[in-house]
Design brief:
Structural class: alpha/beta
Strand order of the largest sheet: 9-8-7-10-11-12
Number of helices: 14
CATH class of the largest domain: Alpha Beta
Radius of gyration: 21 Å
CATH architecture of the largest domain: 3-Layer(aba) Sandwich
Distance between the termini: 35 Å
CATH topology of the largest domain: Rossmann fold
Shape: globular
CATH superfamily of the largest domain: Glycogen Phosphorylase B
Length: 354
């Protein structure tokens, strides 16, 4: 992540070469605002792609422009996102749930400058493409399109755009097959590739998983001291994977009935499409906003914790999702959302009526 800003800045060097290409249509990441000025120069339609959902897109705009957290002194004091009404009127966040530099109402940083400059360049584009679907976030799509702009066009879930890949058998796929034969539901645990989790927190997570009595598959990318002994103790019902896994295939496996996730938007979409409820554990960027949507509005999961989580709390959350009443309700809700996701991309679905 330390190279993100230099990389974004360096892409501007491509602009003169980019404008010599024979193009008829441009879709570019929202951070590459210069591509939209190229679209204007070439006289072709330009669309920006936002990696967030509609709710987080709207909430981020409100935080950056309206600064509802300006009067708040404490990082842990809730503030209302929609004091002026609209679909955010009952949504609260804290400054600790906003990533730097935007937790500060008056931030000064290179990231802020890039966000502002890109936003200005994107604003006159033809529209914004969103990896979501209307039925999941209708209030936020409508509010944005009525009050702001450019128009949001939902084209997701993109994970349904291609058929599931037939991967070669792996240790983890064989283990999941075995759990399916044993009729043992599995909790899938993964926090993406960017979040940094402390060794102390990983140890608490391991203890919570062990004490929960739930079968689990946990993806851990880096070595953790003491984890080998943990793996040996839980080998009958837990698998720790130290390699890349095909997350879509994991979530679509019949044995997987829950997903402990950082709530990155791609992971949320993949879980919805697989009809697997989420245990939200947001860590950075807009993940706290995604967790609010998952837990408070959609009801397709539980969680939404921040800061250090003790082993006892991990155990409680895991059991509640996998065998508790909240988990049962979340399963029903995510089944509905999954059906709506499939319907959105079909002929005559909401994606084709924009």
């Amino acid at each position: 992540m330390s190279l993100f800003l230099p990389f974004i800045d360096a892409t501007r060097l491509l602009k003169p070469h980019f404008e010599r290409a024979d193009v008829r249509f441009i879709v570019a990441d929202s951070f590459l605002g210069w591509a939209q000025t190229s679209a204007s120069a070439l006289g072709v339609p330009g669309f920006a792609f936002y990696g967030m959902g509609n709710f987080a897109t709207l909430a981020s705009r409100v935080v950056a422009v309206d600064r509802p957290h300006a009067p708040v002194a404490s990082d842990d004091e809730p503030f209302c996102l929609g004091a002026g009404g609209g679909p955010l009127a009952d949504v609260t966040l804290t400054k600790s749930e906003l990533s730097p530099p935007f937790h500060n109402p008056d931030p000064v940083s290179p990231l802020k400058e890039i966000v502002i400059s890109s936003g200005l360049e994107v604003s006159p584009c033809r529209g914004v493409i969103v990896n979501s679907f209307y039925e999941l976030e209708p209030r936020y799509v409508d509010y944005w399109n009525e009050r702001f702009g450019p128009l949001l066009y939902n084209v997701g879930p993109l994970c349904l755009a291609a058929p599931a890949r037939q991967s070669a058998p792996t240790e983890w796929s064989g283990w999941l097959d075995m759990k399916c034969e044993q009729n043992r539901p599995v909790l899938y645990v993964a926090f993406g590739t960017q979040a940094e989790v402390s060794e102390t927190q990983l140890s608490a997570l391991a203890a919570g998983l062990e004490n929960s009595g739930v079968d689990f598959m946990w993806v851990v990318r880096r070595p953790v001291p003491g984890l080998a002994r943990f793996e040996a103790r839980v080998r009958e019902r837990g698998l720790v994977v130290h390699e890349w896994v095909d997350q879509v295939s994991v979530l679509r496996h019949e044995s997987v009935r829950g997903f402990m996730s950082h709530c990155g938007w791609n992971s949320v979409m993949e879980s919805v499409c697989a009809r697997v409820p989420l245990l939200a554990w947001p860590m950075m960027a807009e993940q706290f906003m995604n967790a609010r949507l998952v837990v408070d509005e959609l009801g397709i999961g539980d969680g939404k914790r921040r800061g250090f989580v003790e082993a006892e709390e991990v155990e409680r959350m895991v059991r509640e999702l996998m065998v508790g009443e909240k988990g049962r309700v979340a399963v029903e809700r995510v089944e509905e959302a999954g059906r709506a996701a499939r319907g959105a991309i079909e002929e005559g679905g909401s994606n084709n009526r924009q």
